[in-house]
């Protein structure tokens, strides 16, 4: 682990993202991630969870841009860094896994080459050595017959294998922070379990902190100790995962938990009608002025505002 | 009336695969192998399994969009495939499909009203103001407003588009709806609305559903009966409660065990309910510890009854 364990790896403060000064999409989001911790951001489409992840990586696309706040990575505000300096960080000290591995991989290069590139660019290795390291990396993500697979192209692999390759690329340089944006949404459930387990295991072994962005409460519960709930560009609640499920504070969180179909919750007789979100939370309660609610031992004071 | 509404009998769909070399042997992908299913009136039958298991191919065959290699499909006892099968137009009034991605299945250049009334004109059901009235009534039925008829697909949210997809499927008053992953592209809160809408429609219109899904928690809530498919075959079948309370085939158990269920994870109880007892010395088929080869003749096996309306595939 790096640094004193009490200093957060990532500290996002009052982050706002918008289109110029006119339209604001993210309204002052703050959260911390400690070294080795897996922090979940959960929310529905349009809640702002993905742009939060992208802004940390510095991958927001125009016309979107950060319009306020700070992103402290190991104590340094990355928003003040130049483009070259940020580029050096990406892939080396912070890395990202995307939802759809096929679009994130280069279809014209072999798997081995794409992993080896990481060692060549960030570690200054020669290609032959980097290729050997790439095979080791494939082995560590448990891709069968890694020597052979290193010579394959992305289309020759299944979805689960491709996502393992993405993980190998992301973790090649042993980053301190991994951002995983819906890493298993495109995979079958039986494959999903294995991929999540792999991420958890490798990050634990290396002490890598993870920002896991997902709409799936099950995936979040499986992976994260702490979770932030996002709604309409705002972090509305942050709690320990267990406490969140047992005692959700924000009306939106209560609605979200009530609306999901749960395995084993259908009554034996009769139909499995589900609770709809607006039966639990009124629209006014989800407005722009919703405060962030945290547990008493949460560090933030604005919770009481 | 005890006769099922729809019967799928010994359905097999094979696709030719390219030879590995010019002199190599002929290869076939056995997408669906000897599937038998029945759908009763007013029932929801769910077919679950992972991608490539043959669930969508089975659904396409019911819709007449995929010709079976062998086997037959009967609707109210009359064949839907082969000689004497109804025309595309007649079929459209028997079964309709709701797709996963509602936006991809709507014409972006047509207003909702035109799209919905075109079907009525084509089938000679209604024109002009009568057609408009029917469209308005249908939009209301699926939870939209009559004046939404003048809008284009891009003006709607994902949940509204799925409502339009359902309205489109219902315009001709079909008996069967084939729902292909109807909520997997939607947010959790919208999912609940669409699932409730589908269940309400089923009750008021007396519809029968075939739902294709990989989301077991949704399947548990909506289904009357469930068939689990694995590599082209049904490996377990039964009423929803048997499948979820006594999952027996190792593949069904793996599927249920893989659902990331927050309550179970946090309670530390990540168990799958006990299996139903199977006859002594019986072995499950196929063996899921290794990946079956869909290009080979499968071992002889049969669905064996292990309880009231609950059967599982065992090797013979």
Describe this structure in words.
The complex is a heterodimer of chains A (305) and B (316). Chain A is α/β, with parallel strands linked by helices. Chain A contains twelve helices and eleven strands. In chain A, the strands form two sheets. Chain A has a seven-stranded mixed sheet with strand order 6-7-8-3-9-10-11, sandwiched between helices. Chain A has a four-stranded antiparallel sheet with strand order 2-1-4-5, with helices on one face. In chain A, helix 4 crosses helix 5. The longest helix of chain A is centred in the middle third of the chain and has 18 residues, at 189-206. Chain A is globular, with a radius of gyration of 20 Å. The relative contact order of chain A is 0.14. Residues 298-305 of chain A have low confidence and may be disordered. Chain B has a domain at 6-86 and 217-315: Rossmann fold (3-Layer(aba) Sandwich). Chain B is built from ten helices and twelve strands. The two termini of chain B are 35 Å apart. The model of chain B has no long low-confidence stretch (mean pLDDT 90). The A-B interface holds A 44-45, 159, 188-193, 196, 215-222, 241-242, 245-246, 255-256, 259-264, 266, 268, 271-278 and B 50-51, 158, 187-189, 191-193, 195-196, 199, 214-218, 220-222, 240-241, 244, 254-266. Chain A: Keywords: ATP-binding, Cell membrane, Membrane, Nucleotide-binding, Transport. Chain A: InterPro entries: AAA+_ATPase, ABC_Ni/Peptide_Import, ABC_transporter-like_ATP-bd, ABC_transporter-like_CS, Oligopep_ABC_C, P-loop_NTPase. Chain A: Its main location: membrane.
């Amino acid at each position: 682990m790096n640094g004193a364990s009490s200093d957060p790896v990532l500290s996002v403060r009052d982050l706002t993202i918008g289109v110029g000064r006119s339209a604001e999409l993210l309204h002052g989001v703050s959260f911390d991630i400690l070294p080795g911790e897996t922090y979940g951001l959960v929310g529905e489409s349009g809640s702002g969870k993905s742009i939060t992840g992208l802004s940390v990586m510095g991958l927001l696309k125009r016309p979107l841009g950060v319009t306020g706040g700070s992103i402290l990575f190991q104590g340094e505000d990355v928003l003040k860094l130049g483009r070259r300096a940020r580029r050096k960080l990406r892939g080396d000290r912070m890395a990202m896994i995307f939802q759809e591995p096929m679009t994130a991989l280069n279809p014209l290069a072999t798997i081995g080459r794409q992993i080896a590139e990481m060692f060549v660019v960030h570690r200054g290795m020669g290609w032959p050595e980097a290729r050997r390291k790439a095979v080791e990396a494939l082995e560590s993500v448990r891709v069968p017959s890694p020597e052979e697979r290193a010579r394959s192209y992305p289309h020759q692999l299944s979805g689960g294998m491709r996502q393992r390759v993405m993980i190998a690329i992301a973790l090649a340089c042993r980053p301190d922070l991994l951002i995983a944006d819906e890493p298993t949404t495109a995979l079958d459930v039986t494959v999903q379990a294995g991929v999540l387990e792999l991420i958890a295991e490798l990050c634990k072994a290396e002490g890598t902190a993870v920002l896991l962005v997902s709409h799936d409460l099950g995936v979040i519960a499986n992976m994260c100790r702490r979770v932030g709930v996002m709604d309409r560009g705002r972090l509305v609640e942050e709690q320990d995962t267990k406490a969140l499920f047992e005692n959700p504070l924000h009306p939106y969180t209560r609605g979200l938990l009530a609306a999901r179909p749960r395995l084993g919750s259908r009554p034996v007789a009769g139909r499995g009608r589900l609770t709809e979100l607006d039966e639990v939370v009124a629209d006014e309660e989800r407005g722009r002025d919703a405060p962030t609610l945290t547990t008493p031992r949460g560090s933030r004071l604005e919770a009481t505002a | 009336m005890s006769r099922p509404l729809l019967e799928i009998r010994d359905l097999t769909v094979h696709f030719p695969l390219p030879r590995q070399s010019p002199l190599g042997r002929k290869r076939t992908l056995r997408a669906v192998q000897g599937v038998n299913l029945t759908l009763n009136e007013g029932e929801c039958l769910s077919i679950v399994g992972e991608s490539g298991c043959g669930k969508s191919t089975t659904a396409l065959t019911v819709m007449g969009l995929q010709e079976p290699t062998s086997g037959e499909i009967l609707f109210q006892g009359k064949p839907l495939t082969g000689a004497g099968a109804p025309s595309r137009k007649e079929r459209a009034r028997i079964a309709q499909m709701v797709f996963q991605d509602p936006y991809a299945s709507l014409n972006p250049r047509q207003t909702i009203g035109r799209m919905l009334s075109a079907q009525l004109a084509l089938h000679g059901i209604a024109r002009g103001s009568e057609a408009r009235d029917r469209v308005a009534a249908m939009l209301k039925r699926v939870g939209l407003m009559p004046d939404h008829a003048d809008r284009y697909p891009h003006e709607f949210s994902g949940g509204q588009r799925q409502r339009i997809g359902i309205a489109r499927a219902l315009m001709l008053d079909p008996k069967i709806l084939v729902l292909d992953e109807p909520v997997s592209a939607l947010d959790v809160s919208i999912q609940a609305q669409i699932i409730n809408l589908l269940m309400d429609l089923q009750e008021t219109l007396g519809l029968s559903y075939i739902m294709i899904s990989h989301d077991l928690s949704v399947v548990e809530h909506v289904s009357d009966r469930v068939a689990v498919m694995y590599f082209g075959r049904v490996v377990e079948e039964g009423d929803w409660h048997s499948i979820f309370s006594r999952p027996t085939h190792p593949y069904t158990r793996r599927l249920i065990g893989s659902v990331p269920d927050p309550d179970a994870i946090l309670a530390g109880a990540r168990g799958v309910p006990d299996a139903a007892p199977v006859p002594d010395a019986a072995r499950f088929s196929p063996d899921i510890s290794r990946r079956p080869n869909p290009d080979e003749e499968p071992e002889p096996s049969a669905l064996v009854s292990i309880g009231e309306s609950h059967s599982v595939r065992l090797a013979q």
